[in-house]
């Protein structure tokens, strides 16, 4: 997905207050960046996914937190 497409999907999800979609997009982008070897971008996106997942009370927050800990970004 291009950066422009990613940004537009995120803007739409934010505008609609769609927490599930925001978490899905941020987590997907974070996982893809980590897979590509870009730790900084991956953790940046995963941090956003984590925050929105926490705010919405989503169980996926635990998994995201674990990944952030593995990369030294949390606790």
Summarize the SSE layout with pairings.
Layout: H1 3-16, H2 19-35, H3 39-56, H4 60-70
Keywords:
75 residues; mainly alpha; 0% strand; flat
Tell me what the structure shows.
This protein has one domain. The termini are far apart. The mean pLDDT is 94. The longest helix has 18 residues. With 75 residues, the chain is mostly helical. Helix 1 packs antiparallel against helix 2 and helix 3 runs antiparallel to helix 4.
Radius of gyration, in angstroms, nearest whole number: 12 Å
Which structural category do the helix and sheet elements fall into?
mainly alpha
Report low-confidence residues grouped into runs of 5 or more. Answer: none
How far apart are the first and last residues' alpha carbons, in Å?
Answer: 31 Å
Q: What composes the largest sheet? A: none
Query: What's the number of domains?
Result: 1
Work out the helicity level: over 70%
- Helix-strand sequence: HHHH
Kindly report the average pLDDT value: 94
Number of helical stretches of at least 4 residues:
4
Shape: flat
Strand content: under 5%
Give the tally of β-strands.
0
């Amino acid at each position: 997905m291009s950066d422009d497409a990613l940004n537009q999907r995120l803007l739409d999800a934010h505008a609609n207050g769609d927490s599930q979609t925001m978490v899905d997009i941020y987590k997907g982008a974070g996982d893809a960046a980590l897979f590509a070897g870009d730790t900084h971008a991956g953790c940046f996106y995963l941090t956003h996914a984590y925050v929105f997942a926490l705010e919405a009370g989503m169980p996926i927050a635990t998994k995201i937190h674990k990944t952030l800990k593995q990369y030294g970004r949390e606790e």
